[in-house]
Amino acid sequence: MHPNDGRVVSNFITQALSGKPISIFGTGEQTRSFCYVTDLVDGILRFMQGPSTFQGPCNLGNPTEVTINLLAEYIGALTDTKIIRRHSERPQDDPMQRKPDITLAQTLLNWNPSTPLLTGLQSTIRYFAKHSAVGGLEIAA
């Protein structure tokens, strides 16, 4: 994950580590579901090694929903940063809810995500902090 990829997790982490306000579209009550990369790769591998009769599609992800506001709080706590929210208008095409139905992956692939959100966030924060500190990755201002 690159710090400037424009996704909510990387945006919030880089903003928190830089001491900048957290950019939240809308009220922050919209939900998202976060799946750690190792869980996703495991699901893809299981899909590729699955029954040859199954062609897909098959949703992978984490069905546990978290509000954007709660995500900001988690990142603030994990970075030991006082979170200041900067709200702006929610884009028209931004859904209020994102929650994958992974029933097929659970039954056909015997797959479930196993990395808790806070564990994944801790790893990602450590990665960003390490790489931005040594200049390997630049965090946009």
Quaternary organization = single chain
Architecture in CATH?
A: 3-Layer(aba) Sandwich
The radius of gyration is 17 Å
The CATH homologous superfamily corresponds to NAD(P)-binding Rossmann-like Domain
Q: What percent of residues are in strands?
A: 5-15%
Give the overall average pLDDT.
89
Termini Cα gap: 18 Å
Question: What's the SSE pattern?
Answer: HEEHEHEHH
SS elements, strand count: 4
Structure description:
This protein is mostly helical and 141 residues long. It is 40% helix and 10% strand. The strands form two sheets. Strands 1-4 form a two-stranded parallel ribbon. The protein is globular and about 50 Å long.
Which terms summarize this structure?
mainly alpha; 5 helices; Rossmann fold; two-stranded parallel ribbon; 141 residues; two-stranded antiparallel sheet
